[in-house]
Amino acid sequence: MKAVKQILGRYSLDDARHAYATGRLSAAAWEQFLNLWTWSAPRLAGEACVIQAAFLRSRGTEGYHRRLNRVRRALGLSPV
Questions:
Q1: Among candidates 23, 26, 33, 25, which has minimal Cα distance to 2?
Q2: What is the value of pTM for the model shown?
Q3: For residue 17, is pLDDT > 90?
Q4: How far apart are CA 18 and CA 63, in angstroms?
Q5: Average pLDDT of 2-13?
Q6: Looking at residue 15, what is its pLDDT?
Q7: DSSP states along the chain
Q8: pLDDT score for 9
Q9: Separation of alpha carbons 24 and 76, rounded Å
């Protein structure tokens, strides 16, 4: 997870996707990166937005913010 946190801090989603496609990022690291990227901030477009919106509908606002802030704390980011 430490390596994935470092990647998340240095690479954009497109950079990480390219690293995975070219074999510089393992499948497990790519999956971790994508999950952390999805939940590291509110996402307003794309697949991450759809995932977050479904979670919000099923768990409500409090559950959504707990999930978002749990990931942000794990990454050393301040809560939203």
A1: 33
A2: 0.84
A3: yes
A4: 32
A5: 80
A6: 92
A7: -HHHHHHHHH--HHHHHHHHHTTSS-HHHHHHHHHHHHHSS---SHHHHHHHHHHHHHHHHHHHHHHHHHHHHHTTPPP-
A8: 78
A9: 25
Distances (CA, A) of 3 to 7, 26, 61: 6, 11, 31
Task: Tell me the average pLDDT across 20-43.
Answer: 93
d(C-alpha 54, C-alpha 57), whole Å: 5
Q: Are 33 and 25 in contact (CB under 8 A)?
A: yes
Residue 33 near residue 75 (C-beta atoms within 8 A): no
Burial string for 13-41 (b: 16+ CB within 10 Å, else e) reads eeebeebbeeeebeeebbebbbebbbbbe
CA dihedral for 2, 65, 44, 54, sign (positive or negative): positive
Q: Return the percentage of the chain with pLDDT > 90, whole number.
A: 75
Rounded average pLDDT over 56-79? 95
